[in-house]
Amino acid sequence: MGAVVLFAAVSLDGYVGRDDDMPGPLFDWYGNGDVELSFSDRDRPFHVTRATAEFLRPFAERAGVMVVGRRLFDITNGWEGVPPNGEHVVVVTHRPADDWPHAGTAPFSFVPDVGTGIERAREMAGDRDVTVSAGDVGGQALRAGLVDRVVLALVPVVLGSGKPYFGAGGPPEIEFEDPQVVQGRRVTHLVYDVRR
């Protein structure tokens, strides 16, 4: 069985987006290199540095299913029915998207809570990884002990306020192993395994 990985770009002060949910400079590193890379959606390529590409490529290849919250789903319009990372997206929500143009045809599932979402994602992913978006859903999964690894793309910017990486309320005290560190351009990739 693969790992459950909480992943996102984050500011030095711990935010994954501004107050209006937009990433601002947090995504600039996705376009500051000359190596083309994409996750599962080949129509959305990035251009990153060689170091970042070598770090992200195996990460992307291991990802089977992505778990997100309804807010991210709405902001992106469900990526127009194409999973951005992995082959399936599980959306945690109490409001299924029955009126979404891709409902019933896109590889998206809607579940009422994080525990059910992670369980369903793990079943679908098999021996591949499940990625979880940071923010409220990621924080809930971490607090419930469902996350194996936290991956931060640390960007050298302070946003001042915004959407916290671990969501509202923050996580409880959790210890991690020493990090793997990969230096990109305008981003530092940090991988922390949860200490069991």
UniProtKB/TrEMBL annotation:
Superkingdom of the organism of origin: Bacteria
A GO BP entry: riboflavin biosynthetic process
Coiled coil regions, renumbered to chain: none
InterPro entries in the record: DHFR-like_dom_sf (IPR024072), RibDG_C (IPR002734)
UniProt-listed SUPFAM superfamilies: Dihydrofolate reductase-like (SSF53597)
Domain Bacterial bifunctional deaminase-reductase C-terminal: 123-181
Single GO molecular function: 5-amino-6-(5-phosphoribosylamino)uracil reductase activity
Name of this protein: Dihydrofolate reductase
Organism: Geodermatophilus obscurus
